[in-house]
Specification:
The structure holds two protein chains of two kinds.
Chain A: H1 6-15, E1 49-50, E2 56-57, E3 59-63, H2 90-102, E4 108-112, H3 119-137, E5 142-146, H4 153-162, E6 165-167, H5 175-181, H6 187-205, E7 222-228, H7 235-249, E8 253-258, H8 276-291, H9 296-301, H10 314-321, E9 328-329, H11 335-338, H12 346-356, H13 363-368, H14 373-376, E10 380-381, H15 396-400
Parallel strand pairs in A: 3-4, 4-5, 5-6, 6-7, 7-8, 9-10
Antiparallel strand pairs in A: 1-2
Chain B: E1 3-4, H1 12-25, E2 33-34, H2 61-69, H3 77-89, H4 100-122, E3 126-128, E4 136-140, H5 148-151, H6 153-158, E5 163-167, E6 171-176, E7 179-184, H7 195-207, H8 215-221, H9 236-253, H10 262-272, H11 283-290, H12 298-301, E8 309-310, E9 316-320, H13 325-330, H14 337-348, E10 357-360, E11 367-370, E12 373-376, H15 381-398, E13 402-406, H16 407-415, E14 428-430, E15 436-440, H17 443-448, H18 452-474
Parallel strand pairs in B: 1-2, 4-5, 9-10, 9-13, 13-15
Antiparallel strand pairs in B: 3-4, 5-6, 6-7, 8-10, 11-12, 14-15
Classes of the chains: A alpha/beta, B alpha/beta.
GO molecular function, one term (chain B): metal ion binding
Pfam families (chain B): DUF4130 (PF13566), UDG (PF03167)
Family (chain B): Belongs to the uracil-DNA glycosylase (UDG) superfamily. Type 4 (UDGa) family.
């Protein structure tokens, strides 16, 4: 086999990394290059490009290597797959990151890896890449390191010293599926690593009694990812799992990734892709939990047989099941209730609260404030609009759901 | 009388601000000022040279809005801003997003901010030859608004160690040896090819997942007007053309035959993973097995099994209810607030915490998530019964001479008696394992008591019970 060029390796190791969906580069500490080095971070992240799959490119997302001794059925890099393997040297990753960064292609590096030899060895090699970028090249951009399951706590601690964000994937929403599909992974040690990251982050935020900052640790927090549709878990199970993860480990985000067919698939999994809209509904529900004050149980009341409706969004589904709480008087209702009106986003609600301090709002004002009145109409009263019986009409749901498509005749 | 104001190309905001303050101080109505500097036959007069009588004050939010709207390409921007200033100064109506002028300015500000953000995202540098030790990079960008000047800060902060130039049709920014200078814009410069650009293209093509096309999402965030200056977008047509075929090939290929050498590799790894013993033969064995316990459903939500700690030859064993939030994260019993209460009580009773064995009736944390909190939930009898297996092993290997049960759950686990704890507290009962069990309050119960006197009484009772347990442990065993 001819030696692989840098471009060959980049092709293999970025192709292998695309199933990790996180690309966030926001938050974390503020730093820049005016006192040396190159790069800056802090504030909102920047998406430098978008690929035709609608995902943004914010970080150079690559694997250190796609050689792996684990055999996770859903993963293209599992040991039993026949994909071409490659491995970057430390210098190659460092140089790609810096050269891309200087040309303003990226915000930084997202480094993951297959597991070579042992989890400890892999985590140590990844931390070395991050350390080289930080110490030898004064790199001030963003670094996201994937935490390797079962890596020693001191290696995770070192990773947190160089990285802005750490993440470890819970992979699947139920422990039993992880054990079945990823036999080398253990849900309890994955959670243990997340617990460690939370504890270390909290310790790093506390100032010691001398007033000195504790040692730096992943200032942009941690996140995780779940694959949707590779096991039989329903949406309510998934949302309950997310709720526990958010509550337990202070996660910034739980990412949902609709299982997508991979080349060189394992026979253990169906080659059926769940509809992408399912993933979208889960993200909407996740947002409702984090920014709109909904609990997973409340969202579940709008679900059917444990699944979120695909044709309408979860907030609307919830509102349709709780019509007794509507219509709301937009000029009087408190923030928590306004947030529950379909078609009102967090920002719109903020603007409504602001604007109604000066005067009584009318229907036209809501349009200007960015409310989606097509959705909101049945659920609000305001000067110039009252839904009368609309709130309680039997066919209200049908008004929002897209018209059913007639099946084509053969 | 009408007035005309012409504003300079740079330092525009300060010039507008001076002019607007002047005009407002003379109470010159918005319709009497032409802010586009309109010359010609009917040109208006210049503003008066000195300030008028009217005091000029405005809400603090306005200058910030004006500073942003300023960079908008619309020739109307100065007139609109003055209208808004006039309205605010005359207290006519607040400038919220719900009224037409407020909304228009809000939209203009958003458009400017978006333009700056897109410039930060879509400027693409190429390396150009340098005659100094600093590397040099240059880019051509076409913003919608006059956003190069307000948007340059990011590049200055980010690329302080290199020289860079961003040229736009109206303005060029140049940073050399850390000094930022602006001069007039021009046409697209001819930049030499850059090898990293083809690596970037390789990355862009390979990070794309052909199985999930979402063109609208791509186009809304990366509108076509920017494409001509983004090298990677040239690949998009080919990527799309091939996508469907690639997905079809994946589907048609179906599941592949596993690589024959692979089974040995993952099997070897799995052999190194800890495996629970069916019947543990030591305390360490029991712990290893408990770490993988799945006897009830609590393990799915909790982080980890929290096994006991302390002296494996202890004469006294203390059993609590279950690990709390902190214990669950750390993996050790009694390290949270309730643990502090217990340790304090042990100190008062002059008992060395390292000389006892501390554990819980249930080894996994049971909770209800509420936002970013996990609220403690008491384990039910079934869960306590399942977990008795582990408690029994701890009792069997540690063989304490006395056991102190803290709270009703521990009392039930040890004695199988689920009647109320209050009348039993302070008494010695015989455990299921046959040894003496002293019953006491759980430290979290003490923490929850709101009255200081009640708390004090309960704490003293706990100390007394610890002392009673120590006395029991020191008693010669009954014949």
């Amino acid at each position: 086999m001819a030696a692989q060029s840098l471009a060959d390796k980049l092709a293999i190791l970025s192709d292998a990394a695309k199933y990790d969906v996180s690309c966030a580069s926001s938050g974390g500490e503020k730093r820049d290059s005016r006192k040396g080095g190159v790069g800056s971070s802090g504030g909102s992240g920047i998406c430098h490009a978008y690929t035709p799959d609608g995902r943004c490119v914010s970080l150079l997302k690559i694997l250190m290597t796609n050689v792996c001794i684990f055999d996770c059925a859903y993963c293209i890099n599992r040991v039993s797959s026949n994909v071409e393997r490659a491995r970057f040297s430390v210098e190659e990753v460092v140089s790609l990151t810096l050269e891309f960064y200087r040309r303003n292609y990226i915000e930084g590096l997202f480094l993951s890896s297959g597991i070579i030899r042992s989890p400890d060895q892999t985590m140590a090699d990844m931390a070395r890449i991050a350390r080289t970028l930080r110490e030898d090249h004064g790199f001030k951009g963003y670094i996201h390191l994937k935490t390797i399951p079962d890596a020693a706590p001191e290696l995770i601690r070192e990773a947190g010293l160089w990285a802005d964000r750490l993440s470890i994937n819970v992979e699947l929403p139920q422990d039993a599926s992880v054990r079945a599909l990823a036999p080398e992974k253990r849900p309890e040690t994955i959670r243990g690593a997340m617990a460690q990251v939370r504890i270390e982050s909290e310790a790093a935020r506390d100032t010691s009694f001398t007033g000195r900052r504790a040692r730096r640790f992943a200032p942009a927090g941690q996140s995780t990812q779940m694959i949707i549709g590779a096991d039989g878990a329903d949406d309510v199970t998934i949302l309950n799992a997310s709720t526990r993860l958010y509550a337990g480990y202070g996660l910034r985000r739980v990412y949902y990734s609709a299982f997508s067919p991979i080349p060189d698939a394992s026979a253990a999994l169906p080659l059926i892709q769940p509809p992408l809209v399912r993933e979208h509904r889960l993200y909407q529900a996740d947002w409702l939990m984090r920014f709109y004050g909904f609990s997973a149980e409340e969202i579940a009341t709008g679900a059917q047989d444990g699944h979120l409706a695909l044709d309408i969004d979860p907030k609307l589904a919830w509102a349709l099941k709780h019509r007794a709480q509507f219509p709301l008087d937009v000029n009087r209702a408190p923030r928590e209730q306004l947030l529950r009106v379909p078609g009102f986003g967090v920002r719109t609600v903020g603007k409504i609260l602001n604007a109604r301090r000066d005067r009584t709002l009318r229907f036209e004002d809501l349009l200007r404030l960015g409310a989606r009145m097509r959705l909101a109409k049945p659920f609000v009263t305001i000067g110039g609009w009252t839904p009368r019986g609309l709130t309680d009409t039997a066919d209200l749901r049908a008004r929002f759901a897209p018209a059913p498509r007639q099946l084509a005749l053969l | 009388m009408t007035y005309a104001v012409s504003l300079p190309e740079r330092g525009t905001f300060e010039a507008w601000r001076r002019a607007a303050r002047l005009a407002l101080s003379h109470s010159i109505a918005p319709e009497r000022i032409d802010w586009t500097g309109g010359g010609g036959l009917f040109a208006g007069a210049s503003l008066p040279g000195t300030a008028g009588e009217r005091p000029v004050t405005v809400i603090p939010a306005f200058p910030a809005l004006a500073r942003t709207v300023m960079w908008h390409a619309s020739p109307q921007r100065f007139a609109l801003l003055y209208q808004a200033l006039w309205r605010l100064a005359h207290r006519e109506a607040a400038l919220s997003a719900a009224d037409p002028l407020g909304r228009q300015l809000d939209l203009m500000a958003r458009s400017v901010r978006r333009d700056i953000h897109k410039m930060h995202a879509f400027v693409r540098f190429r390396e150009v030859p340098s005659d100094t030790s600093r590397r040099r990079f240059a880019a051509w960008f076409e913003p919608d608004h006059y956003t190069l000047e307000p948007g340059c800060g990011l590049f200055a902060r980010r690329f302080a160690d290199m020289d860079w130039l961003i040229a736009t049709p109206y303005l060029t920014a140049r940073s050399e040896a850390g000094a930022l200078r602006f001069h007039s814009g021009g046409t697209r410069p001819d930049l030499p090819p850059d090898a990293s650009e083809s690596l970037w293209a390789t990355y862009f093509a390979n990070i794309f997942n052909p199985a999930r096309i979402k063109l609208s999402a791509m186009r809304s965030e990366m509108p076509r007007k920017y494409w001509k200056n983004l090298p990677e977008t040239q690949l998009i047509p080919d990527m799309l053309a091939d996508a469907e075929a690639r997905v079809k090939r994946m589907r048609d290929a179906g599941a592949s035959t596993p690589n024959p050498a692979s089974a040995a590799i993952s099997t070897r790894y799995r052999a190194t993973m800890p495996r629970p013993a069916d019947v543990p033969e030591s305390l360490a064995d029991a712990r290893a097995a408990a770490l993988q316990c799945r006897r009830c459903t609590l393990c799915e939500a909790a982080t980890q099994t929290v096994w006991g700690t302390g002296d494996p030859d202890a004469a006294m064993m203390i059993v609590g209810e279950q690990p709390g939030d902190r214990e669950d994260l750390v993996g050790q019993p009694f390290v949270g607030p309730a643990g502090d209460v217990l340790r304090e009580a042990l100190r008062e009773a002059a008992v060395d915490a390292d000389r006892i064995w501390m554990t819980n009736a249930v080894k996994h944390f049971k909770f209800t998530p509420r936002g970013t909190q996990r609220l403690h939930q008491s384990p039910d009898r079934g869960e306590i019964q399942h977990c008795r297996w582990w408690l029994g092993l701890e009792l069997a290997f540690v063989r304490p001479r006395v056991t102190l049960a803290l709270g009703a759950s521990a009392a039930f686990a040890l004695t199988d008696d689920h009647t109320a704890l209050a009348p039993r507290r302070g008494h010695v009962e015989t455990g299921l394992h046959g040894g003496p069990v002293v019953l006491s309050w759980h430290p979290s119960y003490i923490l929850r008591l709101s009255s200081p006197t009640a708390r004090d009484t309960a704490q003293r009772a706990l100390v007394a019970d610890i002392r009673a347990a120590v006395a029991k442990a020191n008693q010669p065993p009954e014949a």
